[in-house]
Amino acid sequence: MVERVGLLGGGVIGGGWAARFLLDGADVQLYDPAPDADRVVAETLDNARRALRRLTLAPLPAEGSLTLVGSPEEAVEGVGFVQESAPEREPLKRDLLARASRAADRDVIFASSTSGLLPSRLQADMTAPERFTVGHPFNPVYLLPLVELCGGERTAPETVERAAELYRALGMRPLVLRKEVDAFVADRLMEALWREALWLVADDVATVAEIDDAIRFGAGLRWSFMGTFLTYRIAGGQAGMRHFMAQFGPTLELPWTKLTDVPVLDDELLEKLVAQSDDQAGGRTTRELERLRDDCLVSVMQGLRTHGMAAGATLADFERSLQARAPAPAADGDVPLRLHETAVAPEWIDYNGHAHESRFLQVFGDATDALLRHLGFPLDGGDVYFTVETHLCLLGQACAGERLSVTTQLLDHDEKRLHVFHSLYRMGDDALLATAEQMLLHVDARTERAAPAAPGVLARVARIAVAHAALPRPDRAGRAVGAPRP
Fold first, then answer.
1. Which of 270, 321, 356, 474 is 20 to 30 Å from 315 at the Cα level?
2. Considering the entire predicted model, what is its pTM?
3. What is the pLDDT of residues 255-296, one digit of tens each?
4. Domain topology for 187-283
5. Residue 135: beta bridge partners?
6. Distance of alpha carbon 150 from alpha carbon 481, whole angstroms
7. Which letter, b or e, does each residue of 468-485 get, where b requires 16 or more Cβ atoms within 10 Å of its Cβ?
8. Domain edges within the chain
């Protein structure tokens, strides 16, 4: 975990890095001479906050502070890591890296977000070039986990190792290249697809929308979790890749594609691309399309997490690290326990302008998870308490942006059960907005049956019970829906 980061460049990629670092708790010093850099980064950060609230229920660290500075030298003062994301012009990047490297401590790692420039050339003018590596991310940086690492001729192996470790701590998936090559791996693959797509448009074979449909309704769905080679191995049946290559390999000799030719990007093709792209956007702004992209990525990554595949496995690992880094839990003697705080997200609001009742239940579920972490459960699929009954009372309304806190009182327990009572308050005026009474049952993950909790857990439960014994029983505890019986 790095505490302070220097960023050189705050455009689409640099702003994404700022969001990823800030929301992981790091302070950021950012240099970008563009007059609207603060606005661009602020808008990107708003999108990132929204996306992460949807992506995970794990407790996020306190957000770091953002400081815009006036020079590359200021950006690297006192930092532990530097990420350069300037425009793809080699002289500009080399100058920024040279100036910043002279001002930074000699053990500070430098990484470049370049999508294709060779690291040996970028590090040529640096002080201590052995601490430089490419760290090429993908947009949106705050959501997509892949980052390609590629060292140059003078890069020390431990530099790449340290950078990979830092990126993993941010919830990313480093891909370390075996050798230095133009455009690295992912962009070379995307460039081949992009070149063929341009030919299909130029030759009026398909529109940009039809080409995108060919990807998003077909191979793109498979690529999100299997990639290319595993997909083709399965296509080969029981015989695997050998059979696939025997069956489809000869097609490589057919003149299907124009990958060795480059379409002329003349005015006619450019206007065709622009017009079709505008039609495809359907009047939606760039920010609206970004939010739609983020929401869809969140859904895909959450779905993949269920199966432990690809980006979903990376997300699960990151959530476990967030759980481990969460602030120290309250003391067992706190009466009642205060284990969970959150804010009302805009997407929680229904047609009445207030948080939907299902979101209150979500907050209480998060409070129960906080209690389980407090009792020592890692929430990794092993033994844990399951909620088997909940009684929800709604007493007030919550609006977007309001901060909420939950208190938890232990009413009763035995070796298998916990009987708890949550109270949800609006921070600021301490208005009681809702309560939830829950019965939790401890389940053995191996047998999937109720079983006594571990002695250490029961000892902690007993200490909480002693502390809570003097609390008055909540007025709504034990209540039921008061409908008359027939």
1. 356
2. 0.82
3. 888 888 888 989 999 999 999 999 999 999 999 999 999 999
4. N-(1-d-carboxylethyl)-l-norvaline Dehydrogenase; domain 2 (1.10.1040)
5. 149
6. 62
7. beeeeebeeeeeeeeeee
8. 4-184, 187-283, 331-468
